[in-house]
Amino acid sequence: MSSTFTSSAFEGQPVPGRTTAGASSTTIGAYLIDRLVDAGAGHIFGVPGDYILKFYDEITRSRIRHVGTTREDTAAFAADGYARCQGIGALAVTYGVGALSVVNAVAGAYAESSPVVVISGAPGVQERREDPLLHHRFGPFTFQREIFERITCMTAVLDDTVMAFRLIDRAIAAARSLGKPVYIELPRDRVMETGYHVPAEALESASADQGALAEAVAETVTLLANRASPVVIAGVEVHRRNLQYALVNLIERANLPVAATLTGKSVVGERHPSYLGVYEGAMSSETARSMVEQSELLLMLGVTLNDVDTGIYTAKLDPERMVRAAQGEVIIRHHRYTNVALGDFITALAAQVTPYAAPLPPMPSGPDAPGFPHADKPMTIARLIGRLNQGLTPDMMVVCDVGDCLFAAVEMRTHARTEFLASGFYTTMGFAVPAALGAQIARPDRRALVLVGDGAFQMTGTELSSHARFGLAPIVIVFNNRGYGTERFILDGPFNDIGEWRFHNLSHVFGPLHGFEAATEEAFETAFAQAIAVRDAPSLINVHLDPNDPSPAMRRLAEHLKSRVGGEHP
User: Fold this and answer.
1) Do domains 22-197 and 210-352 have the same CATH topology?
2) What is the pLDDT of residues 542-561, one digit of tens each?
């Protein structure tokens, strides 16, 4: 839940560019843009509307580039994808209809710790004085901010020209340091008002406890020396804190195997010789499951113990054999060390650890599709994932939607760190296509391989036209099983069926787009080869799959979820 604009700020570093107090010649809108760019956001996503138009006009004269999207919610998904690659993302929408459209996507960013700056236009301060019934209004003028207080770590309303610059600094600092969305409301009559530089305040988080850090590291080093077969499990916080290199340094110095949670997938390059795969309880591969569950010591680094990452709580994680470092503390059995940053703990541990002497066993290589393609053989999810894994190149990132495509893709092996993006915990459908837009703009050296079900594509697939508009060339694989496959295997019924789209014909609507259709391995091989060769426009392959052919992981998950549909416990 967010703090309001009166909160103290969060980041332990000076605010750039603010050295003198007093009136400024810089407008509030321009200052907000400059601070976003300074923080790393070179692009801003969104759809214009009359309450935000003046700010959009400022954007055209600034260092930031606007990326227009087909809808407001897809702008938020795109900003989320951008933030996961760039460290911060931003979107700008109009009041009411625009801002409320992004609530689900922003809630997902909050749940998954993605630092997105939400900028909403608003009626001007002067025009609110008589409490008029303005269009897009849906209650008291405070309602919208109050909604976002629940799904951001800070909200700020820039109605005071004296405080506006300070609030902007606080909000961006909060997003970066806490790794959560923030909400900034900009009344339209304040965009062109000049702000005031105020004395820079100390933007400090709670100071680190060096004594607690030293004791936590010492206790962990002792455990590592006395426990058999230790294993590292790395989670999403390692991603969000940009600690991937520190993690690799630790596992290489200590000679330890490492597994990832689902939300932490690709936290290390998945072809690293120490990588076990994703551990998610009963849904895990046999190799990852056996090594994790037989280990005498688990180093849990940045792990969130949610139901998805624990395989619907089928994970066997005994606190008595666990060191858990996350969210500013280290917990070792009954000992709790507070004010210990995850990065400090990983770095200090790597400096003191003694390499584990036992050689690592051979690690699994990921899914395969031997003999692909077999002539006239219908496509299956297992063979599709195996072929896609074979086809991954070092310049590809995988952006995956929710559904069987996600659970099947768990065993795919990306080449580098942070090359797998998904709504793995919040599990909102419609994430992948717009998130891939933001991710590719943030990292133009990467090509997105987008895995999306037919149901999820129908929700936000219009954003593929934005990929085409901006000259991006993702390869979109539509898992077409004619409905909501995940729900089918939990509780079947006609409510899981959807209308069938001819996805491969969308080039007639979306502009430059190469569409392909595949029902057999041979047809897919031809289409995939052509899609890889295309570098100037998106490619979409409509892959027809048997609705009764789930991935093995999906079968295991469905069995555990069936008991929960009626509110039962597994």
Assistant:
1) yes
2) 999 999 888 877 777 766 66
For the stretch 446-476, pLDDT in tens is 999 999 999 999 999 999 999 999 999 999 9
DSSP 7: S
Query: Is it the case that residue 11 has pLDDT exceeding 50?
Result: no
CATH architecture of 210-352: 3-Layer(aba) Sandwich (3.40)
Sorted by sequence, the CB contacts under 8 Å of residue 27 that are 6+ apart come out as 58, 191, 192, 193, 194, 195
Report the CATH architecture of 22-197: 3-Layer(aba) Sandwich (3.40)
Question: Which of 266, 239, 242, 300 minimizes the C-alpha distance to 112?
Answer: 239
Q: Give residue 313's pLDDT.
A: 87
Residue spans per domain, the chain: 22-197, 210-352, 381-562
Residue 439: closest CA among 249, 183, 266: 266
Dihedral pair phi/psi, residue 507, rounded to 5°: -60, -25
pLDDT digits (tens, 9 = 90+) for 73-95: 999 999 999 999 999 999 999 99
Residue 460 near residue 486 (C-beta atoms within 8 A)? no
Q: Are 236 and 264 in contact (CB under 8 A)?
A: yes
CA-based nearest residue to 81, from 116, 123, 118: 116
Cβ distance 336 to 362 under 8 Å?
no
Q: What is the mean pLDDT of residues 231-245?
A: 94
Amino acid (1-letter code) at residue 89: G
How many CB atoms are closer than 10 A to CB 529? 10
Bridging pattern class, strands 231-234 and 194-197: unpaired
pLDDT of 206 above 80:
no
Residue 260 φ/ψ, nearest 5 degrees: -115, 155
Bond prior to 181 in cis (omega within 30° of 0): no
Q: Report the half-sphere exposure of 365 (CA within 13 A, side-chain side).
A: 4
Q: What is the CATH number of domain 381-562?
A: 3.40.50.970
CA distances from 512 to 47, 299, 437, 459 (A): 22, 48, 15, 21
Sheet of 65-68, strands arranged across: 65-68, 43-46, 89-93, 116-122, 182-187, 155-157
Do the beta carbons of residue 340 and residue 330 sit within 8 Å? yes
For position 20, what pLDDT does the model report? 54
The DSSP element (H or E) to which 449 belongs, if any, is strand 447-453
pLDDT higher than threshold 70 for residue 21: no
Contact 102, 183 (CB under 8 A): no
Mean pLDDT, residues 109-119 taken together: 98
Model pLDDT, residue 479: 96
Q: Which string of DSSP letters, residue by residue, matches 285-315?
A: -HHHHHHHHH-S-EEEES----TTTTTTTT-
Cβ atoms within 10 Å, residue 202? 8
Band of pLDDT at residue 15, cut at 50, 70 and 90: very low
pLDDT in tens, 479-505: 999 988 888 877 889 999 999 999 999
| Tokens coding 197 | 């530089």
